[in-house]
Amino acid sequence: MNDRVELRNESVLTFNGGGSAAITARSGSAVNLNGATIQSNTPEAALSLQNSSAVINGGSLTSTGGIGLAVARTAGSPDSGSTAIVNNASITGVVGATVSANSLLELSGSELTGTQTHGLRLLNGVAIAGNGTVIRGATNGVFIFDEATAGTSTLTLDNSTVIGEGGSAILVDSAFADSEAIVNVNNGANLQGSNGVLFEVIGDSTGTLNVSNSVLEGDIVAEAGSTANVSLANRAVLTGRLENVESLAVNSQAQWVMVEDSSVQNLSMGSGGSIKFGDPGDFFTLSVENLSGSGIFEMEADFSQGLSDKLEVTGVADGNHEILVHSSGADPLSDSRLLLVEIAGGNAQFALLGGEVDLGTWSYGLAQDGNKWYLDASTRKISPGARTALAIFEAGPTVLYGELSTLRSRMGEIRMNDSKAGGWMRSYGNKFNVSAQGSSYSQVQQGIAFGVDAPLPYGNGQWLIGLLGGYSTSDLDMGRGTSGKIDSYYAGVYSTWLQPESGYYIDGVLKFNRFQNQADVHLSDGAKAKGDFDNGAVTASLEAGRHIKLNDGWFVEPYGQLIGAVIQGQSYDLDNGMQVDGDRSRSLLGKVGVTVGRDMLMSNQMRVQPYVRAALAHEFINNNEAEVNDNRFDNDLSGSRGELGAGIALSLTDRIAVHADFDYSNGDKIEQPWGANFGVRYTW
Asked: Which residues contact 415 (CB under 8 A, 6 or more apart)?
């Protein structure tokens, strides 16, 4: 290894590999080290720059008794300093590196280690660390102090780490009251202190910590007489304690997560910035002297214990703020009101994010009483989770109605084919708007059905017997992002009697369903809850009517229909703890109506039969019940409604007939804005 090297008067030294003892550069000299190994076994720095510069690429600087790298200015030169650019190198010393006023240290992909004290000592200088650099100190990771005069020290960390193995990650101290330290923590940078402190300000110092797009966990502490200012931005997250912090700014979707009762002198918020009051089960109070801007406060509330997080502003509160209270699937055990916010003065306004908070069966609103805001049980209404649970049970009958329909809409005008054996297929869609106790939703159904039938060998071919099967899916929309889905698989038998001379007919159907039900609940705090269950149903329909022929191909067809259904009860849980228990549901729907149309034979021998239909339907069952968290609700869909329809049947050949049918209905609790049905029948 070479002897100690000293440069003066703008000298230039370049090492490409190899090694050297300590290097000192003064008076505008330049040092270029490429993969070199610099070793000092004395109290001298491995590399000392005084009003000089260095570029270090790779290699290492090591001082066993002093500073690894000193980036300094010469005494008596207040306007000049040194610059060091370090790439992918290792620097080790009792103190890893020092940077004085007017000096700059840039570290990229490097390791800076203080074996006995600090990793980096910043004395009114500027240090920038990026690209995975690690700064490690045996005591504090970084120590920021002022030189003989007041000044500003600036540390910028970009995707880099500072570790204090025996103290705080960053310690700010000062001999001058008007000195300031500014620390920028950006883009995934990290701070770690063995004492749990990320940023500590002592000795009448002023320290500002700006965190952007980084996640930090630890405390920020300022002793009495010192000043700490904290800014969180660009989705930064800080989890920890703030002690004696003068100002906190939380902006651009950043978040501070509290770990205990806390106080901040001045709090400003904006652009989606939020404060989270700990984890579920923690109940903290945040005391603020002055509040401004617009932010989000994430809180917990427990009616059963009478506990909640609380924000109190002892001075002036301004701005429009939102409160996000975390939802739950469990019901409160008592009805009361819980204090969330109290201010001494100002024009601040507070509202629940989303307008309400979901706690089990109920959703609660925020009530203002003077300068206090409460979560008030008197404002409760049924929650989306409960509405979804009820809607899935309520929707069973409308699923069955949409699948079954009438003989004409199921098979077309079968008289066109003289009751021959055949097969048929139809596709259909329906929309229902349902309003029952505590639950309003829209249901859109799509399905397909098919069947085969043949005349019985007796009765002059007037009796048909057949098998049918099909599938439908129904999407339920409860609003606010909450939905349900019912997949229905079914099979059944049917029999139809037709008397051509008199026009009388009877049609009976027995159908068995298997439902696969899913609930997807969007809760007030943005979380989701899901649940699913399977159940079955049996449906029987009996329809009777008479096809009366009039002059010139016109006909009138009065009919009546009775549909009975039993849907299996079931119990299930949503994954947020909500418990749902649905009793066995029943439906008994009666219809009376009339169809008027005309049977026309076209010049190409194709038969065309347009028609219109009107009917009155009435649901007789009014006491289907379901429980949500032991709160009992009645799924009552009873009542009457009117139905209108129009359609057309066409006999394309002596074997093929097609039909289309369109429906509308409206009445008590159920509206059908539209229904459509398209089918084809083939005989052989």
From this structure: 498, 500, 547
Query: SS3 for 386-442, per residue?
Result: HHHHHHHHHHHHHHHHHHHCCHHHHHCCHHHHCCCCEEEEEEEEEEEEEEECCEEEE
Phi-psi region of 246 (alpha: psi -120 to 50; beta: other; left: phi over 0): alpha
Residue 457's pLDDT band (cuts 50, 70, 90): confident
- Label residue 333 by pLDDT band (50, 70, 90): low
Length of the chain: 684
- Report yes or no: 191 and 165 within 8 Å, Cβ to Cβ: no
Nearest to 647 by CA among 390, 384, 406: 406
- Is residue 502 classed exposed, middle or buried when 0-12, 13-18 and 19+ CB atoms within 10 A define those classes? exposed
Q: What is the mean pLDDT of residues 611-626?
A: 91
Cα 179–183–186 angle (5° rounding)? Answer: 165
As given in the structure block, the two tokens for residue 40 are: 């000092």
Number of DSSP helices (H) and strands (E) in the chain, helices first:
2, 64
What φ, ψ does residue 594 adopt, rounded to 5°? Answer: -145, 140
Q: What is the rounded (10 degree) CA torsion for 126, 132, 137, 139?
A: 90
Which comes out higher in pLDDT, residue 2 or 210? 210
Query: In this predicted structure, which of 164-173, 276-285, 286-295, 587-596 has the lowest mean pLDDT?
Result: 276-285
Amino acid identity, residue 253? Answer: Q
Main-chain dihedrals φ then ψ at residue 571, nearest 5 degrees: -120, 145
State which H helix or E strand residue 385 sits in: helix 384-404
Residues whose CB is less than 8 angstroms from the CB of residue 98 and which lie 6 or more positions away in sequence, other chains included: 67, 69, 70, 71, 72, 120, 121, 122, 123
Token pair 């290894």 is found at 1
**Other C-beta atoms within 10 Å of 518: how many?**
16
Q: From CA 559, how far away is CA 544, in angstroms rounded? A: 6
Residue listed under structure tokens 């024009």: 347
Q: What angle do CA 454, 456, 461 make, to 5 degrees?
A: 90
Per-residue pLDDT at 416 exceeds 80: no
Which tokens belong to 491? Answer: 């099979």
Q: At a CB cut-off of 8 Å and minimum separation 6, what does 561 contact?
A: 406, 541, 542, 543, 544, 589, 590, 591, 593
Q: Find the distance separating the first CA and the last CA of the chain, reported in whole Å.
A: 104
Beta bridge partners of residue 221, listed in sequence order: 200, 243
Q: If we measure between CA atoms, which residue out of 57, 37, 185 comes closest to residue 110? A: 57
**Virtual torsion, Cα 212, 321, 293, 300, nearest 10 deg:** -40
> String of b and e for 39-69 (b: at least 16 CB within 10 Å)?
bbeeebbbbbbbbbbbbbbbbbbbbeebbbb
Contact 256, 227 (CB under 8 A): no
CB-CB contact of 593 with 587 (8 Å): no
CA distances from 30 to 7, 33, 80, 477, 527 (A): 8, 10, 15, 72, 59
Secondary structure element (H or E) that encloses residue 384, with its range: helix 384-404
pLDDT tens digit sequence for 213-266: 999 999 999 999 899 999 999 999 999 999 999 999 999 999 999 999 999 999
Sequence-ordered list of residues with C-beta below 8 angstroms from that of 305, at least 6 positions apart, any chain: none
Task: Tell me which residue of 643, 675, 625 sits closest to 436, measured CA to CA.
Answer: 625
Separation between Cα atoms, residue 179 and residue 181, nearest integer Å: 7
